[in-house]
Design goal:
Strand order of the largest sheet of chain A: 27-31-32-36-35-34-33
Number of helices of chain A: 20
Helix content of chain A: 25-40%
Largest sheet of chain B: 7 strands, mixed
Shape of chain A: elongated
Number of helices of chain B: 12
Number of strands of chain B: 9
Largest interface: A-B, 89 and 89 residues
Shape of chain B: elongated
Radius of gyration of chain B: 37 Å
Distance between the termini of chain A: 88 Å
Oligomer: heterodimer
Radius of gyration of chain A: 41 Å
Distance between the termini of chain B: 63 Å
Number of strands of chain A: 40
Strand content of chain A: 25-35%
Strand content of chain B: 15-25%
Helix content of chain B: 25-40%
Largest sheet of chain A: 7 strands, mixed
Strand order of the largest sheet of chain B: 1-4-5-9-8-7-6
Structural class of chain A: alpha+beta
């Protein structure tokens, strides 16, 4: 939560013995994150207070007013465009020659034919706030002609401090001042804790009953009677506005002022509008209706903590008050609430209403249970000061008794053991003392009493953090840790497993990059329709609260997003695309977390080679992809890699051009031409070749163990075999027969030609193989090889009606 | 006659090799294989040879004819292709035929680099699910359901108990559940935040978590180890700064910064003139987390850290937009 800290206001509570830059550095180093340093207002050179004597319509412009402004013994004619300007107002006037904080210089001007000698300014123009709705209206009693700086003060430096959820004590000026005094050793000046109580006893005016003590451990009330509601004095207004809160009226502004000052949210009710002149703190009833101050009617439930009078709800505890009991111009008697609400209850109320306020953010971080009394005294005194009225005697204080402040034992050895420092007991005690912890020695160690405003500290380790941050993290000397050694068999095995997977992931990417492919990385969320397009049978893992429907499902295949990359680049005239992605896909399960297998997706479109001056372009085709896929698996050390026709339907691929990869008989993935249906959906016009491979199979079997064999001792015999077979016989059929017949002596067999045409029968093809035979034990004879070759041929003839091609 | 054919073949091949352009080749063809060519003449005379020698001679002469024909064709193709001038000189300045240049994605490169450094430091690499139980992502990291810290990690939900992990920290808990100390692991992985993307935010990003638990692990070691890491990744001059911070699962917690790798710490656009680059959060493992995995915090201490791989890659490779990573503009990625 970011709070704004006007420096001049802060200095009311502590001295700041440093420049702004140094202050910021010191705060940051001790744990308060300063998000920004801004200047509000300016020195207002050439700005004065003016009294608007007369307002007339500009003769040539409906929306402009012609104002006569008294700037102290001198009358200026000023043209003003603001709708709220009116005779009798005191206003800030920039005279001719003055410069606005934004840099614009005010000159004598002629606007639609009428001369203007200055400018009446809005708060935005004065750099006081974002309010540019109308001109700023000053207090009525100020003398015209006074320099504006006398009224508004000089330029103000405002720090924006982002306070972490663990430090609710710093969500106030006093809290920040307390940190500064811990750093500087200076004095902390707390706001006044006394008030003149001249009214009747408070019990005779109002009552409080807490029916939900767990949700509201403390509720404090005070009454001020005879107030006059009106605008706040300029000092009050400018302070809260510099801190980012809009001025509403004197009483409401005081409640906000004290919240900013001390961190305690307060609420002011019109006592005369409280039925039964009393407050009841209770849970809301199911479906209880309530209109909050922002004018929104809400339906509550039993999770919400309600502040009620004796008839109906008047506020949501710790979140926001209600419209019906708010302070109005007619309010005479004010009931001031200062409560300590349970953090979890406020958070649930705030979540239930989907409403976060300055109050709810403070409560849900944890409230100091001792703060309410002081804060209400402070606010009552300020109300009496700025709105008149009489403070009733005493205060209503309904509370569950607070236990004693927690005491924590802090071991010096533990401090140094965790931090790696060499601090002694007294150094540690001094640091904690500056942070306003109670500290007493206890043998070699310390006993530390935690003040009520530091309830985030409740363990020894929390104190160690306090010691560390005030000592300074920059003073902790770096040391190197030695890797621990775990020689157990279990540890070794575990490490091998972990390394194995990492190495495999790396090998896949290295191999693909080595083959000339560019790795892409896409995100894992997409529209479920894309999952359905590519894998219709598989349910998507869905997000309950997606950013948009396009990002509402987890991908079931990488193909969808990789095709997205193809399209994106094709639209940018990248014609030859060779990409791959390796990443997780998500598979819903009946119960529990989805599976997250890893997939490799390869996509190619365009030419086989980059264009070259020497030679025509050649389109990438099925066999490029097949060669690539098989080479990849081979490179990764998989055995017996082959491609078989895919006999079922995969909507990603063109049915006639899909191959299934087998590695040692295990299905490893599919590849082929992306189907027109899918390409149309992506509006891709070029053919795309794609392979989708299950990394689980690769990782399970991949290995980079290499074994080198001795070179052959005996010569090989090479024979060619050209046969004509019917169309339906596949290369794989023939290969299987050749291998089956020739046994161990066959060293290799390569297909070197496929021919269809006039020289052979229709619906048949000629396939030519180069076979190489070799024995590891002897030189093969011609006759021996011829016998093998004949055997192969006989088998092919009988099995596949092959004919030897002459 | 066989010898004559062989001599003719040798002579023809030599002339073909010397031929400067296609017209020379045509002359050679006519001289040897034309109607009155040398080889044609020999072929005609085969009929006059001894009948038992005829097949052998015929075969050799035909072979010579074939060889010369092929040589002529090859030489013609070479002349026409344009790589060499008519005189056979090569223009070495013509563009070469490059093999396709593959590349790994910068996120992969940074992950591999980071992983390698930590492996050298004795960390092993583990991973965990991206779709994660609320328990591991929050509860067991000391972020109970009603804790305001949940607001700082806007979360995608998949049902009431399952989230897209908002950080890689849940893997800390998973590892400690499965393994007794010493634990020394890093967890590179993908994480998600329910944030509308803008100039500096993405809803998907990549982190690397680190965890070291043993007897006597100190914050000073965390600082020393992070300094070593920073200097391995960005060079020996990089400094590391710790600032107090808050995370429910570490205590004390720090934000750690590296001195700006672009300007060396004097201040520049990249470090927003501060001299420092905010890297991420770290700290000493909170005893409450040890409570969830049954480690005795009196016996063991540990440090944990996170880092944004996207950010590190930006600094390391001079990438200026976080959106570059998932945009996949091949004009940017290719060949890198």
């Amino acid at each position: 939560m970011v709070i704004k800290v006007p420096l001049s206001w802060l200095q009311a509570y502590c001295d700041v013995p440093w420049s702004v830059e140094e202050l910021v550095d010191r705060l940051v180093l001790s744990g308060l994150e300063v998000d920004g340093v801004d200047t509000v207002g300016s020195d207002f050179e050439g700005f004065v207070v003016g009294h608007v004597d007369r307002v007339e319509r500009h003769p040539n412009a409906d929306r402009l007013s012609l104002c006569t402004v008294d700037v102290g013994g001198e009358s200026l004619q000023v043209i003003c465009g603001a709708p709220n300007v009116a005779a009798g107002q005191k206003v800030p006037v920039a005279r001719v020659g003055a410069s606005l904080p934004g840099g614009m210089e005010i000159r004598k001007a002629k606007i639609r034919g009428v001369e203007s000698f200055g400018m009446i300014c809005s708060e935005a123009e004065l750099n006081l706030s974002d309010d540019h709705e109308g001109i700023m209206v000053l207090e009525a009693g100020i003398e015209p002609g006074r320099p504006l700086q006398d009224v508004l003060g000089g330029p103000e430096t405002v720090l924006s401090i982002d306070v972490g959820t663990n430090r609710p004590d710093c969500l106030s000026l006093v809290g920040v001042a307390r940190e500064i005094t811990a750093l500087s050793g200076g004095e902390l000046r707390l706001p006044s804790g006394v008030v003149d109580e001249t009214g009747p006893p408070v019990d005779t005016l109002a009552s409080v009953r807490v029916d939900a003590p767990d949700d509201c451990p403390r509720f404090v009330g005070r009454v001020i009677t005879g107030v006059r509601i009106g605008p706040s004095p300029d000092w009050l207004k400018s302070r809260i506005e510099a801190a980012g809160i809009r001025s509403i009226s004197n009483v409401v502004d005081v409640t906000n002022y004290v919240m900013l000052e001390m961190g305690q949210p307060l609420h002011a009710y019109d006592l005369d509008r409280l039925a039964g002149q009393g407050i009841v703190v209770r849970r809301a009833r199911e479906e209880e209706a309530f209109t909050t101050l922002d004018g929104v009617e809400r339906t509550l439930d039993g999770e919400v903590l309600m502040i009620a009078d004796h008839e109906t709800g008047i506020g949501v505890g710790g979140v926001m008050g209600g419209l019906d009991t708010e302070i109005t111009p007619e309010t005479d008697r004010v009931f001031l609430e200062g409560a300590c609400f349970d953090a979890v209850r406020v958070r649930r109320s705030s979540k239930a209403l989907q409403l976060q306020t300055d109050a709810s953010r403070r409560f849900e971080r944890g409230m100091d249970p001792e703060l309410q009394g002081e804060a209400v005294v402070r606010a009552a005194g300020l109300i009496a000061e700025v709105a008149g009225g009489v403070v009733a005697e005493g205060m209503i204080d309904v509370r569950t008794p607070a236990g004693p402040d927690p005491v924590i034992r802090l071991r010096v050895s533990r401090v140094n053991g965790l931090l790696g420092t060499g601090l002694d007991r007294d150094e540690i005690a001094a640091l904690l003392h500056r942070l306003r912890f109670g500290v007493r020695p206890e043998g070699a160690d310390l006993e530390v009493v935690v003040p009520s405003f530091r309830r985030d500290v409740f363990r020894e380790v929390d104190l160690i953090e306090e010691v560390a941050r005030l000592y300074g993290y920059d003073k902790i000397e770096p040391a190197a840790s030695a890797p621990p050694r775990d020689d157990s068999a279990g540890a070794r095995e575990r490490e091998e497993d972990r390394r194995g997977k990492q190495d495999d992931q790396r090998r896949v990417r290295d191999a693909m990059a080595g083959f000339g492919f560019t790795e892409v990385v896409t995100h894992s969320l997409l529209h479920p329709d894309l999952n359905r397009l590519i894998d219709p049978s598989r349910p998507s893992v869905m997000i309950d609260n997606p950013l948009s429907p396009e990002l509402s499902a987890m991908r079931t295949s990488l193909a969808a997003s990789v095709l997205g990359v193809v399209r994106w680049n094709a639209n940018r005239k990248v014609r030859d695309i060779r990409i791959f992605e390796a990443g997780r896909v998500f598979r819903a399960k009946e119960e529990g977390l989805p599976d997250e297998p890893e997939q490799l997706c390869i996509a190619v479109t365009g030419q086989r080679h980059s264009p070259h001056w020497d030679g025509p372009p050649e389109a990438f085709d099925f066999f490029d992809l097949k060669g690539l896929a098989e080479a990849l698996l081979g490179r990764l050390g998989l055995d017996r890699v082959e491609t078989v026709p895919y006999d079922k339907v995969d909507p990603l691929f063109d049915a006639d051009r899909t191959g299934e990869l087998l590695a040692d008989g295990v299905r490893a993935g599919r590849f082929g031409a992306v189907s027109h249906r899918v390409l149309d959906r992506y509006e891709i016009r070029e053919p795309v070749w794609m392979g989708v491979i299950d990394c689980g199979v690769l990782f399970g079997q991949a290995s980079d163990r290499r074994t080198y064999r001795a070179p052959p001792k005996y010569p090989a015999v090479e024979r060619d075999l050209a046969i004509v077979v019917p169309e339906e016989v596949t290369h794989r059929d023939i290969l299987n027969e050749i291998r089956a017949c020739s046994g161990d002596l066959l060293e290799s067999v390569e297909l070197f030609d496929v021919y269809r045409g006039t020289q052979i029968a229709a619906r048949s093809k000629s396939m030519a193989y180069a076979m190489r035979f070799r024995s590891e034990e002897r030189t093969l004879t011609d006759a021996e090889v011829t016998r093998l070759q004949d055997k192969v041929l006989r088998r092919l003839v009988s099995r596949y009606r092959a004919e030897l091609r002459s | 006659m066989v010898q004559e054919a062989e001599a003719i073949e040798a002579r023809a091949l030599e002339e073909i090799a010397r031929a400067a352009d296609p017209s020379d080749l045509e002359d050679i063809r006519i001289r040897y294989m034309g109607k009155n060519g040398d080889l044609t003449r020999v072929l005609r005379s085969v009929g006059k040879a001894d009948p038992k020698d005829r097949p052998r001679i015929g075969q050799r002469v035909n072979q010579a004819k074939k060889t010369i024909g092929e040589a002529l064709e090859a030489r013609r193709a070479a002349c026409e292709a344009g790589g060499e001038s008519a005189a056979g000189a090569l223009d070495v300045t013509l563009p070469g035929r490059p093999p396709p240049l593959g590349s790994k994605h910068p996120l992969t490169l940074i992950r591999e680099e980071v992983t390698e450094i930590f492996r050298d430091m004795g960390f092993s690499v583990v991973d965990g699910p991206e779709v994660e139980w609320d328990y591991y992502n929050f509860e067991a990291l000391n972020i109970p359901r009603d804790h305001p810290a949940r607001d700082t990690q806007d979360t995608f939900y998949l049902g009431s108990d399952i989230v897209l992990r908002t950080h890689t920290s849940p893997v800390q808990v998973r590892v400690m559940e499965q393994q007794k100390p010493p634990v020394r692991v890093i967890v590179p992985g993908r994480t998600y935040r329910h944030e509308n993307p803008d100039a500096t935010h993405a809803f998907t990003f990549h982190q690397c978590e680190g965890l070291y638990v043993d007897k006597g692990v100190t914050m000073a070691q965390l600082k020393g180890d992070m300094t070593y890491f920073a200097q391995r990744l960005f060079g020996g001059k990089v400094k590391v700064r710790f600032l107090p911070d808050f995370f429910p699962f570490t205590e004390p917690s720090v934000q750690y910064d590296f001195s700006c790798v672009a300007c060396g710490g004097v201040g520049c656009r990249i470090c927003k003139y501060s001299g420092w680059l905010e890297i991420s959060g770290a700290g000493m493992v909170d005893p409450a987390v040890f409570g969830f995995v049954d480690y005795d915090p009196e016996v063991y201490t540990g440090y944990a850290f996170g880092m944004g791989l996207d950010r590190l890659a930006m600094f390391k490779y001079g990438i200026d937009s976080i959106h570059m990573f998932l945009e996949n503009d091949l004009r940017q990625l290719e060949g890198n």
